[in-house]
Amino acid sequence: EAESDDRLGLPGDAEGECDVDSKTDTPDAPVSTADSDNTLEYLNKALEGLPPRWKNYWIRGLLSICMISGFFLIIYMGPITLIFVVMCVQIKCFHEIITIGYRVYHSYELPWFRTLSWYFLICVNYFFYGETVADSFGALVRREEPLQFLARYHRFISFTLYLAGFCMFVLSLVKKHYRLQFYMFAWTHVTLLIVVTQSHLVIQNLFEGMIWFIVPISIVICNDIMAYLFGFFFGRTPLIKLSPKKTWEGFIGGFFSTVVFGFILAYLLSQFQYFVCPVEFNSETNRFTVECEPSDLFVMQEYTLPSALQNTLRWKTVNLYPFQIHSVFLSSFASLIGPFGGFFASGFKRAFKIKDFADTIPGHGGIMDRFDCQYLMATFTHVYIASFVRGPNPSKVLQQLLMLQPEQQLSMFHTLRSHLKERGLLPPAAVQAE
């Protein structure tokens, strides 16, 4: 494929001006190291007698089992480990995308692209993780004087750091290569938007309860595996040109399998406080806690079935956790819209004529190849929680109140007491004691 839309360049500017970009400023597609076979030697020997299609099937299957086992181990290790894993995955995904741009950029010997890319990554992570610390670790922030200063001026510090990088980029501009440098500047910022912003949403979902972290990730994994299996054994009809190996049979089979899997997983996890309680920081023990009285979402409810289903199933009512109903919507998104994250990644790779983002995982490509749908799913989950699930969080409101000055806290106290008194919610003893 050598169509014009595979090129980064635009039509050249008028010739004869000394400060315009040259027509050779359009970069070539990078040569990917991900196209080489990085399968472990003993696996190659064990599977050397199989046809390539079945060899790839076994390699992907074995590595998938290893990754799923590691996922269970990470969940067992708790929320802090999950946060660090999300950060490591984010950094690796960022590295894989930026490396593609660096191969283009480095051939022109232009300064600072890689340095500035990583600098902006640090700035954005400082902003997002600083917001998380101030929001979820309020007791710790109030206890440490340096953290109080950083929390108070966090956004100003973040903006100042970004401005420093912005100025460094302007100073790095090189004559006759302005266009390419702005391509790379945009490349970095789009990568930050896709990877860093959405990985921050993954962590926000985690703080709502580990079930909001585990279920969305698991159903995307399930959809990926089941769509692959249905496509492998039954696939005949191509689904989309961007991914020729994707089939309608795999897409439909993955949808129904994912909805059933999500429904069952939601039922199993809803029974345990460890998964359903919001993740909060205990200032007394300096540890995360996942203990609470489960909300109504995770309390068994009785539902009356529609009359059509009553005649078919001969059941009038069914007992479900409300979260199971939410899981159907999450699973539907993961099956119907989530794959478009993979199609987007496929289009990106085809634009640069590479097979995978990297060769980190044999048979699977790079980390970004495994998480291209996860980021889209994380954003949907965050929006879904904010729109249909989350209510006011008393603990977070209290943390914000405790960050106020003593005079402001006292004013809030009197306002709240007057409001409760007017509504008759204060006990008589409290009113007489005034």
UniProtKB/TrEMBL annotation:
Pfam families: CTP_transf_1. Residues 1-33 are annotated as: Disordered. The keyword Lipid biosynthesis applies. It is an enzyme of class 2 (transferase). Keywords: Lipid biosynthesis, Lipid metabolism, Membrane, Nucleotidyltransferase, Phospholipid biosynthesis, Phospholipid metabolism, Transferase, Transmembrane, Transmembrane helix. It catalyses: 1,2-di-(9Z-octadecenoyl)-sn-glycero-3-phosphate + CTP + H(+) = 1,2-di-(9Z-octadecenoyl)-sn-glycero-3-cytidine-5'-diphosphate + diphosphate; 1-hexadecanoyl-2-(5Z,8Z,11Z,14Z-eicosatetraenoyl)-sn-glycero-3-phosphate + CTP + H(+) = 1-hexadecanoyl-2-(5Z,8Z,11Z,14Z-eicosatetraenoyl)-sn-glycero-3-cytidine-5'-diphosphate + diphosphate; 1,2-di-(9Z,12Z-octadecadienoyl)-sn-glycero-3-phosphate + CTP + H(+) = 1,2-di-(9Z,12Z-octadecadienoyl)-sn-glycero-3-cytidine-5'-diphosphate + diphosphate; 1-octadecanoyl-2-(4Z,7Z,10Z,13Z,16Z,19Z-docosahexaenoyl)-sn-glycero-3-phosphate + CTP + H(+) = 1-octadecanoyl-2-(4Z,7Z,10Z,13Z,16Z,19Z-docosahexaenoyl)-sn-glycero-3-cytidine-5'-diphosphate + diphosphate. Its EC number is 2.7.7.41. It is a multi-pass membrane protein. The chain crosses the membrane at residues 57-89, 110-129, 156-174, 181-203, 209-235, 247-269, 323-345. One of its GO terms (molecular function) is nucleotidyltransferase activity. It is found in: Membrane. The keyword Lipid biosynthesis applies. InterPro entries: PC_trans, PC_Trfase_euk. Pathway: Lipid metabolism; Phospholipid metabolism; CDP-diacylglycerol biosynthesis; CDP-diacylglycerol from sn-glycerol 3-phosphate: step 3/3. Belongs to the CDS family. This is Phosphatidate cytidylyltransferase.
